[in-house]
Amino acid sequence: MATTADFKNGMCIEYNNDLYTIVQFQHVKPGKGAAFVRTKLRNVKNGRVLENTFNAGVKVNVARIERRPHQFLYSDDMGYNFMNNETFEQVSIPVDLINCPELLKEGQNVEMVFHADTESVLYAELPPSVVMEVIYTEPGLRGDTSSSTALKPATVETNAEIMVPLFVNQGDKIKINTEDKSYVERVK
Fold first, then answer.
1. Which of 57, 76, 77, 82 has the fewest CB atoms inside 10 Å of its own CB, making it the most exposed?
2. Which CATH architecture fits 2-62?
3. What is the CATH number of domain 129-187?
4. One fold for both 2-62 and 65-125?
5. For 84-116, how does the pLDDT look when each residue is reduced to its tens digit (9 = 90+)?
């Protein structure tokens, strides 16, 4: 058990019979009335964000979660298969528990988040950015743009389609943000 004074960003709590991580919180002491804590909570299972206000000093159950390094092996009709890097134990999870499965390639390391009490997988998290090779894109022509932010579609090695600037060519390696599948930079 913890109180609202123990809140930290990233803390996982049980609320309304579900698991939520604290995205943001703010202690508020109005001039008149009791203090309270304004929070933004992200549902661990579906990713929805909700805003909630707790009275100061309210007790909440803290959920123990563990992050373990895993390596992506392959995907089949049963799900995505990962191997624990320390125990070499294999785990299969459904695609909806992975934050950006279209950017996942064989041999890539991910963080698997487990609920420590039930030993169940909550979700798999890719690194903040990944480097991929562009396998197909149309050539960008000089003078093709009326603004400086012209983009074109490009297919990367996992067959995901990413919007990239006109100067990116086939065979280039690019860094991609896994949060929103956006182009970050070209890698040498």
1. 77
2. Roll (2.30)
3. 2.40.50.140
4. no
5. 999 999 999 998 888 888 999 999 999 998 888
